[in-house]
Amino acid sequence: MNTKKDFHKIQFGKNIWICPSWEDASILPKEGVIIDMDSGLAFGTHKTTDLCLQYFGSKPTKRFNCD
User: 62: which residues sit within 8 A by CB, 6+ positions away?
Assistant: First the structure.
């Protein structure tokens, strides 16, 4: 799997976006929660992913950077 070819911006719920570094986050809604994250092959396959996104979704609009 070519991660850069196969992983693009993804919206979760109404206002959460996961955006890898090779995608343009500036076109995403300013009122959204933007999580800058370069995904691995297992992204989204664990319950912790869902729980973390629920947590982020319950917070005021912020920008998160996951290095």
Answer: 33
Closest CA to 10 of 36, 30, 31: 36
Amino acid at the residue 64 = F
- Is the pTM higher than 0.90? The answer reads no
Q: State residue 44's pLDDT score.
A: 59
Where does residue 9 rank: exposed (0-12), middle (13-18), buried (19+ CB within 10 A)? Answer: middle
Give SS3 for 53.
helix
What are 17's strand-pairing partners?
11, 34
